[in-house]
Amino acid sequence: MINSERHKRTELLLGSEAIEKLHKSNITIIGLGAVGSHVVEALARCGVGTIRIVDFDEISESNFNRQLYAIEPNLGKRKTQAALERIKQIDPGINVEVFNTLCHADTFDEVFANPTDVIVDAIDTLNPKVNILYEAVTRNIKIVSCMGAGRKVDPTKITTADISKTKMCPLAKFVRKRLRNRGIYTGVHCVYSMELISKDTIAEETEENFYKSGRERRPIGSLPMITGIFGYVAANEALKMVVDYPEFEK
């Protein structure tokens, strides 16, 4: 059972009814890397009762500049295992549902055999991402999708909008086009950046361990501050889908 004392500050702000909804909620995070690890951190500290974590990958040295679980004792460990341990250190009463898999069209039924209130998509692989968003919209599951956080340095350019209204983000553009080709025009709430980016932040070499999740790609530059903010904004948007935030006088 969730330790209510650990979430008193959240209750003071949002109210007892909201905290009760959070304790009963189920939120799924797909991708536990630079953005997703921070989503999990925020949701665990807010008192979400059940957190479903989905990732197939292990922690490597290339993760250390930006991922919450990338610390020396976790090197080589599954990201889901590291996330589970971290959540239980925050509150042992949180129920954690673990899926060590790449979430895509073929595994969606397995991962979502049981209902979830909100999905947070925190992956950056285009085809699986589009498949997840398509399945969520067609199955009427609320979803927050994180667009490109790499190659960004200005936190003030990070914002949110429906996929149909996103601007300046190359990943959002590709996602939007592919969803439209499948008949989806709206219904995906996005966290994205309107910052102009430089091509000089892409490495020449390919990413060695990427083949098991899809096409070959080259690593891109990133900052932990930006990816972390993406994660916390996404967690905030997911929380607002579960509870009504209070309106304060301005």
Quick one: how many beta strands?
A: 7
What is the tally of helical segments?
Answer: 8
- Helix/strand structural class: alpha/beta
Q: Whole-number radius of gyration?
A: 17 Å
Beginning-to-end CA distance, first to last residue: 37 Å
Write down the secondary-structure element order.
HHEHEHEHEHEEHEH
Instruction: Assign the CATH architecture.
Output: 3-Layer(aba) Sandwich
Average of the residue pLDDT scores: 91
Strand content: 5-15%
Strand neighbour order, sheet with most strands: 3-2-1-4-5-7-6
CATH superfamily: NAD(P)-binding Rossmann-like Domain
Shape: globular
**The top level CATH class name:** Alpha Beta
Roughly how much helix do the residues carry, as a percent range?
Answer: 25-40%
Give an overview of the whole structure.
- With 250 residues, the chain is of the alpha/beta class.
- It has a single domain, classed as NAD(P)-binding Rossmann-like Domain (Rossmann fold, 3-Layer(aba) Sandwich), CATH 3.40.50.720.
- The chain has helices at residues 8-14, 16-24, 36-46, 79-90, 108-111, 126-138, 170-181, 224-242, and strands at 26-30, 50-54, 95-99, 118-121, 142-146, 158-162, 189-193.
- It has a seven-stranded mixed beta sheet, with helices on both faces.
- α3 runs parallel beside α4 and α6 packs across α7.
- The chain starts with 7 loop residues before the first helix and ends in an 8-residue tail after the last helix.
- Residues 201-211 have low confidence and may be disordered.
